Amino acid sequence: MLSRVADSLYWIGRYCERTETNAHILTTRLDHMIELSREDSNYRFEWEAIIKICGYFNDFKNKHDGYYLKKMIRYLLCDNENLNSITSMVESYRMNARNTRDLLPNELWEEWNDLYLSIKEKDKEETSIISTYDFLSNIRKSSLTASGIIDSLMTRDECYLFLKIGKWIERAEKTAIIINELLEYEEQFTDDFIATYSLQLTHSFEEYTRRSRNRSKQKVLNFLVGDLKCSRSIAHSIHKIKEAILEVENGKIEVYAVEMFEALAKLEDILQVDTSSLTQEACKEWVKDIRDQCTNFGPIFSKTYYLTPPILVT
Amino acid sequence: MFKPYDCYTFYDEMLDGENPKKHYIPFYKQLQKFSDEELLTKHKSAQSSFLRQGITFTVYGADGDTERTMPFDFVPIIIPDDAWRKIEEGMKQRVEALNMFLHDVYHEQHILDAGIIPRALIESNPYYYQAAVGVNIPLHNHIFLAGIDLIRDENGEYRVLEDNLRNPSGMSYVYQNRYVMRKMYPEFFKDYSIETLEKQLLLMQKALLSHRPRNLHPDSEPHAVLLTAGIYNSAYYDHVFLAKEMNIPLVEGRDLIVKENKVYLKTIRGLRQIDIIYRRIDDDFLDPLVFKKDSLLGVPGIMDAYKQGNVAILNAVGNGVADDKAIYMYVPDMIRFYLNEEPIIKNVDTYLLTDEEQKNWVLQNLDKLVIKNVGASGGYDMLIGPHSTEEEREIFRQKIEEAPYQYIAQPTIKLSRAPAFQEGRFYPCHIDLRVFVMKGKETHVLPGGLSRVALKEGSLVVNSSQGGGGKDTWVLKEAKVYA
């Protein structure tokens, strides 16, 4: 497979996953916010955390004063200067898909092209809660449809694996970012809130409550980091990444791939740390370390396969 | 509902006066069964199907680039089998002669020695590339894919308007037009038996792979790629389609690298050598070491690999010298010179403006003629005399005086017309036909081709960049279906 093509597929995987999770995070945030007054002391902190999780906080602060809902929604949904806004990402993966059209199922291209054509028509000034819900719901449905097309129609070759690796790297990193950000607000948020909110934002609330009634911060943390059965946990994502890479490599570890496998092994180790013996401070450090390792893994992977930079919307 | 219109003195593809021509009768009968509303609904879903599938070309404009679809018109151009057989023979003959000409001008130059074509016309031609002189290419074939544009005059006789021997585009539209026609207008195929397009791409793949570079080991399978300029190129969909159908990787210049005169693909497992490049970028951009220095689309060193016989480049480098509009008028002479035959499909009469006598006559008759820049395409830098203002004619008069070698003149041909259904009504539009010829060890002509239609009423310009659209083209299998 061409390095350029592998790169596009990898980024398609990442952008799609990011679009879906960001859409979910925003929906969750809107649900919460409805019951909260702007005067509430946590209003600001909760939004701050969301913008950090979904975008570039400094960029937002440079452009906008305060936390006006309209501005935040516009920034996160359809500000084309924000490369992590939903519309920017849809454009990015549609562009990368155009670039690899000859290798993707036609249905997949049509799904993404349809979504792209529909968001082109979106009125950027329309930021009412109802229309925002609708918009996010369309995005999420399209993401799920695309996942279905990928799984039912794509040959299980390298193209498929690179797409999936991108997806799992993105997922591991996102879960790490969410936990890490929420722990940053220990003084403002209660432990209960952090536990429940991190389950909701990572979209694993249902998964968790089906299995456990104990919603202590400690337990939730262990679940989101190290539980191999949790579809959103970091450990599960890392496991999937390793599985896919081993398939690409036919089960062998060649010289050029040593650094990548070492990074994976290091991640696997750190995820299995027993948190019950950690102090609050040490636990925060531990999560931060996991997040850094997740963030650093992408570039190591790219380097191993000579990937060239992705096409971004300009 | 369709109502016959006045054909005036134009040749109409479908009508003979008030009545349909024989081979259009079944179609005409079906047409009477549909209301305008039904046709409009079909038309809209056909158009949006192109958009959904991203079958678009990019139009560069002041307020950003937009992706547009080529308008599709459902009234097909139907060609009876005997008429098609003549076109097919004519195209094979023409491409054969053009290929011999290309080989000749880059090697022995017999045709110049014989004085059939003025030597100056070749040597001063900007598309005659020194870099291609004497290069020994696979099968001695310069033309892997040609797009020959045909028109019909007022008597219905087919004539060649233009040869495209560099990077003719539009083949994907032939397939998409047929696809949409089958999906949205299945009723109209009733009582017709037409040539299918299904097997043609396999023939094209075979022709492609037959261009084995001379240093390729006889037992090795050749590795081929399609070199595109990327997603911003206006013909990108064409490239995607052909790469997918011929099952070869679609690559960009930055995916290739030349080492020791061999061309390699950059893959996730390092470099892999390739043997055949079907390139869809122009000669000028191929190799920054030889042609345009600032080209980012090409691959440095690729021309050396080509000359050494390590890679085949299709179409060959330097074909522009044969499809130039000034060379065009000599093609009938080429056919006589190389094949000792008379042209089966004639040219449109053409006047060379470097001849003082012809030039003066042309300047006096600008209002009756079409003037074309020999180097331009896509309908640009062109004067259509009968539709021009005195001011426009004055501009061209000056252009011709300044650079007579840059222009040719042709009589205004009454291009044939066919009905089109757009915006809910029928009206006659001028059409032409791009025929695709594929050449490897053998030569094949794609049955039918791309019928292009000038959708602006009265317009003679069929190019998609200037409001032209496309139609499905049917070649009938046997005479009895319409007899």
Task: Give a brief outline of the structure.
Chain A has 314 residues and is mostly helical. Chain A is built from 14 helices and no strands. The radius of gyration of chain B is 23 Å and the shape is globular.
Any chance you could write out the topology, listing elements then pairs?
The complex is a heterodimer of chains A (314) and B (483).
Chain A: H1 3-33, H2 41-54, H3 57-63, H4 69-78, H5 86-99, H6 106-120, H7 129-153, H8 158-184, H9 191-201, H10 205-211, H11 217-226, H12 234-248, H13 258-271, H14 280-304
Helix pairs in contact in A: 1-2, 1-5, 1-7, 1-8, 5-6, 6-7, 8-9, 8-12, 8-14, 9-11, 12-13, 13-14
Chain B: E1 15-16, E2 19-20, H1 25-31, H2 36-52, E3 56-59, E4 66-69, E5 72-79, H3 81-105, H4 110-113, H5 119-123, E6 145-152, E7 158-164, H6 171-184, H7 200-209, E8 224-228, H8 236-246, E9 250-252, E10 256-259, E11 262-267, E12 270-273, E13 276-279, H9 283-286, H10 302-307, E14 312-314, H11 320-323, H12 325-328, H13 331-339, E15 346-347, E16 351-352, H14 356-364, E17 369-373, E18 382-384, H15 390-402, E19 407-411, E20 417-422, E21 425-439, E22 443-445, E23 450-454, E24 468-475
Parallel strand pairs in B: 5-24, 7-15, 8-9, 8-13, 13-14
Antiparallel strand pairs in B: 1-2, 3-4, 6-7, 6-21, 10-11, 11-12, 16-19, 17-18, 17-19, 20-21, 21-22, 21-23, 23-24
Helix pairs in contact in B: 2-6, 3-13
Description:
The complex is a heterodimer of chains A (314) and B (483). Chain A has 314 residues and is mostly helical. Chain A has one domain. Helices cover 72% and strands 0% of the residues of chain A. Chain A is built from 14 helices and no strands. Chain A has helices spanning 3-33, 41-54, 57-63, 69-78, 86-99, 106-120, 129-153, 158-184, 191-201, 205-211, 217-226, 234-248, 258-271, 280-304. In chain A, helix 1 (3-33) runs antiparallel to helix 2 (41-54) and helix 6 packs antiparallel against helix 7. Chain A starts with a helix and ends in a 10-residue tail after the last helix. Chain B is an alpha+beta fold and 483 residues long. Chain B folds into 2 domains: 15-342 and 414-482, no CATH class; 349-411, Dna Ligase, domain 1 (2-Layer Sandwich), CATH 3.30.1490.270. Chain B is built from 15 helices and 24 strands. Chain B has helices spanning 25-31, 36-52, 81-105, 110-113, 119-123, 171-184, 200-209, 236-246, 283-286, 302-307, 320-323, 325-328, 331-339, 356-364, 390-402, and strands at residues 15-16, 19-20, 56-59, 66-69, 72-79, 145-152, 158-164, 224-228, 250-252, 256-259, 262-267, 270-273, 276-279, 312-314, 346-347, 351-352, 369-373, 382-384, 407-411, 417-422, 425-439, 443-445, 450-454, 468-475. In chain B, strands 5, 6, 7, 15, 20, 21, 22, 23 and 24 form a 9-stranded mixed β-sheet that branches. In chain B, helix 2 (36-52) crosses helix 6 (171-184) and helix 3 packs across helix 13 (331-339). The radius of gyration of chain B is 23 Å and the shape is globular. Chain B starts with 14 loop residues before the first strand and ends in an 8-residue tail after the last strand. The mean pLDDT of chain B is 91. Classes of the chains: A mainly alpha (314), B alpha+beta (483). Chains A and B meet through helix 1, helix 5 and helix 6 of A and helix 8, strand 9 and strand 11 of B.
